[in-house]
């Protein structure tokens, strides 16, 4: 039986006295026993698992060419079987989707569905990949392993419910405008420079801005967020993921800092409108940044001109193929499937956990032990295109692909272990919300970095980015937290109460 837990009895009485039912909902939290929540999501998982297993069995029993032809539909059905029951179970609560396991399912699953369709209809500009796509012999087995791995990640999402993990008493900063201006100045100051260390610095600064504007319910929070996205798009045109993946941090900031007068649980209308606007903004920014990178022969250096050229870009004959590259749906689909197909076909290429173990050697020189594990980027890229790797190129194969490149048919088990760790760390980081701007920014940054790792950067990249972001955050965001802490310790000036007509005046 669900029990109600009142965060503060005084606040409860105050809310009841003023009759503000919407505020009362923020002060009252429903506390459901953990075993009940797990059982409820467990039934959801079993329902989805039955459908996914049925899809896998149909694929395994079908001819290879049939699976190749209908691969996009298979993945679309798979996504529906995972996302829809989960959304109904959590009542489409935004925060339940914004964690490493579910956001990776959404990103990888959508890329596989759309990418498979682009290859089926030959909207492919890189002809070598199209030739290899048609030569895959293990496409049924590859689909089965990838689907089972996504189901394993879904298992983690269902059995790690995060309830009542939003700390109460989050302080709003009185000096937010000054702090926001300070962080924007730092962000703009990095504009002329390009270095491998700058992306995590920009990310932690951007997440610090999001924390400031959302925790204090700044009236201009959405305008500031759009300006921030546009600025990052202009700065990071060469690596658009650092700008676009900030949308995940933006959504999380909205979810973990519920303002007075609104609920963190989104209505269907809010989900549809907000999701639609988010997808439109993402679409337009991605295309604009691709134009700045020279796609379709454009030579544009500023984001505003690129934004205005988007309609012309979309009118080109090969627009669908270019969009497949711009959004990397074809890229994710091909390299994930190609890596899994190779790993299942040739057991000698498997790393047997070596690329995952590399994270344990972070910061340790190779001379200490005489060896250092190989990264997934290094191993797969050298196998696929050694010449491209020699000039510094790289290909990502997602964490699912990395699990298969290490363990072959046992990839689903590895995916469960990896995402269980990522989700547990994500849940633990919520406690950092009590520790000012830096703590909140680290939480938002972590979600963004797990998405980058899910795309194919590897766990060693995730750890490196977190360490760099933490160090930069201490230097840049630390002074903001120190100033706010000093302000809270400063005694408030004494205020002489004025005579109110409501006060009793007898005896005066």
Order of helices and strands: EHHEHHHHHHHHHHHHHHHHHHHHHHHHHH
Please tally the helical runs, counting DSSP H or I stretches of 4 or more residues. Answer: 28
Give the distance, in angstroms, between the N- and C-terminal Cα atoms.
56 Å
| Biggest beta sheet summary | 2 strands, antiparallel
By DSSP, the count of extended strands is 2
Q: Biggest sheet: strands side by side, in what order?
A: 1-2
Structural class by SSE content? mainly alpha
What share of residues is helical? 55-70%
Could you say which overall geometry the principal axes of the C-alpha atoms support?
globular
**Mean pLDDT figure:** 81
β-strand percent reads under 5%
Oligomer: single chain
User: What is the gyration radius calculated from CA atoms?
Assistant: 25 Å
The low-pLDDT segments are 1-39, 161-175, 260-264
Care to describe what's here?
Helix content is 69%, strand content 2%. It is mainly α and 508 residues long. α7 (100-120) runs parallel beside α26 and α9 packs parallel to α25. The radius of gyration is 25 Å and the shape is globular. It starts with a strand and ends in a 19-residue tail after the last helix.
Give the helices and strands, then pairings.
Elements: E1 3-6, H1 9-18, H2 21-27, E2 28-31, H3 34-60, H4 64-69, H5 71-89, H6 94-97, H7 100-120, H8 127-135, H9 139-158, H10 176-189, H11 198-215, H12 221-235, H13 241-244, H14 246-256, H15 268-292, H16 303-308, H17 310-314, H18 319-326, H19 329-345, H20 354-357, H21 366-369, H22 376-384, H23 386-390, H24 398-407, H25 411-429, H26 436-457, H27 459-476, H28 478-489
Antiparallel strand pairs: 1-2
């Amino acid at each position: 039986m669900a029990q109600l837990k009142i965060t503060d009895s005084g606040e409860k009485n105050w809310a009841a006295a003023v009759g503000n039912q919407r505020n009362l909902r923020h002060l009252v939290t429903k506390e459901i026993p953990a075993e009940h929540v797990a059982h409820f999501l467990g039934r959801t998982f079993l329902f989805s698992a039955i459908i996914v297993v049925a899809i896998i069995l149909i694929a395994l029993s079908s001819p290879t060419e049939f699976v190749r032809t209908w691969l996009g539909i298979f993945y679309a059905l798979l996504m529906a079987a995972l996302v829809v029951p989960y959304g109904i179970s959590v009542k489409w609560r935004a925060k339940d989707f914004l964690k490493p396991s579910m956001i990776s399912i959404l990103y990888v699953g959508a890329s596989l569905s759309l990418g498979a369709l682009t290859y089926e209809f030959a909207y492919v500009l890189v002809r070598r990949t199209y030739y290899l796509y048609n030569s895959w012999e293990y496409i049924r087995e590859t689909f089965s392993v990838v689907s089972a791995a996504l189901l394993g990640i879904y298992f983690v999402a269902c059995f790690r419910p995060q309830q009542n993990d939003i700390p109460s008493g989050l302080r709003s900063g009185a000096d937010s405008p000054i702090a926001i201006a300070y962080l924007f100045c730092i962000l703009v100051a990095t504009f002329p420079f390009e270095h491998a260390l700058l992306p995590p610095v920009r990310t932690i600064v951007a997440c610090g801005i999001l924390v400031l504007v959302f925790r204090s319910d700044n009236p201009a929070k959405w305008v500031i967020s759009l300006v921030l996205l546009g600025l990052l798009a202009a700065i990071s045109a060469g690596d658009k993921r650092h700008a676009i993946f900030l949308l995940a941090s933006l959504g999380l900031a909205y979810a973990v800092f519920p303002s007075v007068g609104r609920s963190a649980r989104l209505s269907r209308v809010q989900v549809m409108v907000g999701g639609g606007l988010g997808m439109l903004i993402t679409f337009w920014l991605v295309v604009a940044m691709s134009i700045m990178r020279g796609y379709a022969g454009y030579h544009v250096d500023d984001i505003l001109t690129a934004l205005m050229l988007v309609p012309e870009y979309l009118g080109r004959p090969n627009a669908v193929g270019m969009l497949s590259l711009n959004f990397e749906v074809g890229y994710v689909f091909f390299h994930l499937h190609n890596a899994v197909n190779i790993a299942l076909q040739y057991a000698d290429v498997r790393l047997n956990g070596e690329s995952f173990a590399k994270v344990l050697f972070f910061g340790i020189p190779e001379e200490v032990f005489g060896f250092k594990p190989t990264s997934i980027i290094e191993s797969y890229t050298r196998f696929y295109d050694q010449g491209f790797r020699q000039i510094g190129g790289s290909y990502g194969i997602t964490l699912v692909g990395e699990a298969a490149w290490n363990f072959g048919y046992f990839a689903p088990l590895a995916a469960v272990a990896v995402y269980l760790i990522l989700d547990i760390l994500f849940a633990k980081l919520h406690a950092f919300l009590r520790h000012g701007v830096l703590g909140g920014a680290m939480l938002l940054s972590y979600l963004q970095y797990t998405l980058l790792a899910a795309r194919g950067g590897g766990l060693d990249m995730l750890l490196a980015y977190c360490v760099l972001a933490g160090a930069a955050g201490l230097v840049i965001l630390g002074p903001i937290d120190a100033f706010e802490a000093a302000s809270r310790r400063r005694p408030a000036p004494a205020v002489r109460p004025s005579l109110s007509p409501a006060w009793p005046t007898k005896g005066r």
